[in-house]
Amino acid sequence: MGPKTTELVNELEGCASFLRECSEVKWAYWLEKSASLLRSGQISGIDHYKGAFGGMGSINDLVLHPINGHTIKETEINSANEKLKVYFSTIDQLAEEVTKHAVFNE
Question: Where is the DUF6966 domain (predicted)?
């Protein structure tokens, strides 16, 4: 696993851990699965991650908020959702770099 893939796995796991801290188990598990695939050398972990986006009920619809059952305070709503956006942005950039530099056996 190259350094960018390692960085990607670390970001996925960090985001998953953050989501678990907020009691968002479904999407935490999804990101952990993506990280696990990448850790085992499967580039499909990136496709798995990207599969979380798009369509109704996707991770795009996720808003961390106590009203949605998340264990954050009202005062943390904005910062928690901003932190999530930063994670996704970083993960997207790393996933693009890893995909661009992936070596495929033919």
Answer: 21-72
Q: Is residue 63 part of a domain?
A: yes
Question: What b/e sequence results for 75-96 when a residue is b if at least 16 CB atoms lie within 10 Å of its CB, and e otherwise?
Answer: ebbeebbeebeebbebbbebbe
Give me the helix-helix angle, 77-100 and 3-21, nearest 10°: 160
Query: Which pLDDT tens digit goes with each residue over 95-105?
Result: 999 999 876 54
Tell me: the pLDDT tens digits for 59-78?
999 999 999 999 999 999 99
Q: What is the pLDDT of residues 28-56, one digit of tens each?
A: 999 999 999 999 999 999 999 999 998 88
In a domain, 105, yes or no: no
In terms of residue numbers, what domain contains 7? 3-100
